[in-house]
Fold Response regulator.
Amino acid sequence: MTARILIIEDEALVAMELRFVLEDLGHEVIGTVADARTAREMAAETQVDLALVDIHLSDGPTGIDLGRELGQDMGVTVLFMTANPGMVRDGVAGTVGVLTKPTDERAVQTAVDYALRRRQGVPVEYAPPELQLFG
């Protein structure tokens, strides 16, 4: 199952590594952006199946509101990736969950696969242990 994925991450090396992992899995990375404004513009211009969203972006701690907006208003499946998972411990409406950074390729792969299966309505028996689910 391939998907159109937007990476929203202000650390260039992290974004580049995520791109490589996702493309190796056969997904199309439609872009990597470092701030909420550019992410909103890109999501409005093209179809996004999944967004990997950091909480602290180049324009501040805007990732939480951005994730909520992408999930609730734009129909994008959202996974947060952050070194500060406590900031979203109560969950964020319209989003799937959070993957704690740093993480490894396998954790990214299983979390993305889980989120995409949920998006397509495919039954999933359990979530990957690295992924903290919301609601």
The helical segments are 12-24, 36-45, 63-73, 105-119. Residues 44 and 108 are 25 Å apart (CA to CA).
